[in-house]
Every structure is written in C-alpha cells, then in structure tokens.
Amino acid sequence: GGDHTITYPILQAVAQKHGPLGLVHVDAHTDTGDTALGEKIYHGTPFRRCVEEGLLDCGRVVQVGVRGSSYDPDPYKYGQDQVRKQMGDKPVYISFDIDGLDPAYAPGTGTPEIAGLTPAQALEIIRGCKGLNVVGCDLVEVAPMYDVSGNTALLGANLLFEMLCILPGVKTV
What pTM, to 2 d.p., does this model score? Predict the structure, then answer.
C-alpha cells in the first residue's frame, strides 16, 4: 500500500546500513520528477531525491514498464542519462508499483496506464531477481477501493510473496 513516497525514507534507512543501492524499479512512471505544485517530495519524485542524496548506485538502477503520460516534456531523459550496468553482488532494493501492470489485470491503483505488463511478466521480473543480493523490497499504489473484483489486492499479495521467496537465504524447494 501507500505510494512511492514511502520508498524514499525506506531507502534512506537501508542505504545507511548498506551504502548506495542498486534498484529494480517496476512502474508505469519514472518517479524522477523534480517538483509538483512546488513540492520537492511527492510520489513522482522519490528516485530523483534518492539519486541527489547518493542513496542509489546509479550504475545499478533498472526501470521496467515505464510508459504513459507525464508532466515533463521529456520524462525519460533523466533516467537515460544515468548509467545502467549489471547489478553484481552489491545490495539491491526492489520497488514495484502495481501500476506497472496493465489495468486489465490490476485496475485498483490511482494512476492506471494502458499497455502495461502482464502478471506473468511481473513474476518473470521478480523471479529473475533470485540470486541478487536483495536487501529489501516494497509494493506500492495498491488501492483496493478502485477494484471491486479484488484482483489487484490478490495480485499484489502474490507479488509480495514472490519477493519474499527470492530474498537471499530463503529456500523455496
């Protein structure tokens, strides 16, 4: 639950322990905006703030599922300017915004964007992180009141379960 403003203080705490983190960020939006309505901290700015504070190892940041409208004329420039390398064995955080999935599967979110990922693709991304030094993870933007079927909450719960299963030291077989 919550939006990506919860990830910012979490990353501050995790980076304090582990140093700059790699990040696997699944979202329809980059969340690297500078301001909204004059505010520097809102759900569309946390990863820019994290970069500015040195919380992220920008060579190990990957964004998946980005699409949709933006308040910026070139919303991808900031991310494209950051160097992307393989994650290696250094600490990695996974932040998954449910709006990274297509609203046909997860309509219960405040910012739905068409042409998103399928649940199978979401599982592939999370399961593909097995073996990385994952030190934390979150799932944000689940808004059950926008989905009378309950599918978004069910999908969110399953994605969190999958994230727990790929944490280092967790035996799944």
Answer: 0.86
